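Researcher: Sequence recovery benchmark, item below. Answer with residues only.
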């Protein structure tokens, strides 16, 4: 049984990970859980999975959580706050820590887990996009693995098994194209929040559904792919693949290409991140190519998806610019969802904030610099005039 801990156990990644544990109780054992604030669900998870240690990030909720689990025969150690979450990350004999925490809040506990020698099932975007300058040297130093839980990076990681060092030539990330895949670029100024929330293939949270519509999601994945697999930005491309069956591809030095296919189901990449290098037999629905019929591909339109170029630009600038891009995007998307700015203002706002930051960029940032840049970008977006 592989011992694992889950940070963010009540979120989408956390609950899907626990679904897998519930399905394969002979394969995985839960050592620790952390949650932001949902004590009802967390209490139920404690009862079902009997972890050794649990932390609730929102400290005020600790007494309520304590009384909620008072009847449990073998209660876990209960902790609270950022310190508590960090302690769960590094605690005990867990081999892999699933990082399902959203935002820069995920950085500190991820670093704590790495320093404790644990492999990371990577589901927190900021770990690499913002944190790479600090996180990657630690990964090397502590000889741990970053096991991608995102479908695209998992696909690349799966394809790379058995490829010798230096064999990889190019990465091709597939994108569904999001809600506006079939809309002409000149119609995009009129889109509503409702239009943007209709994702064709994946049922996801609001923020990531908007990121799929702008293709920022893919841009951020390009930056993560750069850090995970070590290719430069000229060797990482995006292709629109509306069926979301091929989750990404790699091209090798001899022009051979490898792809990973599967239904659009997050559990598959999650399972592989947990079971790696083992392959676990599942009773999940098998992919039926004949039923699928055809798989199609097209080039993403720069004009329609300006966020893509912003992400490549931030990645190439390096240093703190990816952190600024990511934080600015989160704030811009929040403003759009609140109805305060238009859809096309999202890239405009991000670009303005990035332009302001250029002269402050720093090639060798500390963790404090990263968190400061993230906070700066969030404030900078809020200060831009909204009617333009
Ligand atoms: Mg993805």
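Model:
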């Amino acid at each position: 049984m592989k011992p694992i801990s889950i940070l963010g156990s009540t979120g989408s990644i956390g609950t899907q990970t626990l679904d897998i544990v519930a399905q394969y109780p002979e394969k995985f054992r839960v050592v620790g859980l952390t949650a932001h604030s949902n004590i009802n669900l967390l209490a139920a998870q404690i009862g079902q999975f009997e972890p050794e240690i649990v932390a609730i990030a929102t400290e005020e909720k600790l007494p309520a959580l304590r009384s909620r689990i008072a009847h449990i025969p073998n209660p876990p150690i209960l902790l609270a706050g950022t310190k508590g979450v960090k302690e769960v990350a590094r605690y005990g004999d867990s081999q892999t820590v699933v990082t399902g925490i959203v935002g820069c809040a995920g950085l500190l506990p991820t670093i704590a887990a790495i320093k404790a020698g644990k492999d990371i099932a990577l589901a927190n975007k900021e770990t690499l996009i913002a944190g790479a300058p600090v996180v990657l040297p630690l990964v090397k130093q502590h000889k741990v693995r970053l096991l991608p839980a995102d479908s695209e990076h998992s696909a690349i990681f799966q394809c790379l098994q058995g490829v010798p060092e230096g064999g990889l030539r190019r990465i091709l990330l597939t994108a569904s194209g999001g809600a506006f895949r079939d809309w002409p670029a000149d119609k995009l100024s009129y889109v509503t929040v409702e239009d943007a929330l209709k994702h064709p293939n994946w049922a996801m949270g609001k923020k990531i559904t908007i990121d799929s519509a702008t293709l920022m999601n893919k841009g951020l994945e390009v930056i993560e792919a750069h850090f995970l697999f070590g290719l430069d930005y000229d060797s990482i491309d995006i292709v629109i693949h509306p069926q979301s069956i091929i989750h990404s591809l790699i091209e090798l030095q001899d022009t051979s290409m490898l792809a990973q296919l599967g239904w659009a189901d997050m559990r598959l990449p999650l399972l592989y991140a947990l079971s790696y290098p083992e392959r676990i037999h599942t009773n999940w629905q098998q992919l039926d190519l004949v039923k699928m019929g055809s798989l199609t591909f097209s080039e993403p339109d720069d004009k329609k998806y300006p966020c893509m170029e912003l992400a490549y630009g931030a990645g190439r600038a390096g240093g703190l610019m990816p952190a600024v891009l990511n934080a600015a995007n989160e704030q811009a998307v929040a403003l759009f969802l609140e109805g305060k700015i238009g859809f096309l203002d999202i890239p405009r706002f991000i670009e303005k904030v990035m332009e302001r930051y250029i002269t402050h960029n720093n090639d060798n940032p500390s963790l404090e610099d990263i968190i400061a840049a993230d906070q700066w970008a969030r404030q900078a977006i809020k200060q831009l005039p909204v009617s333009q």
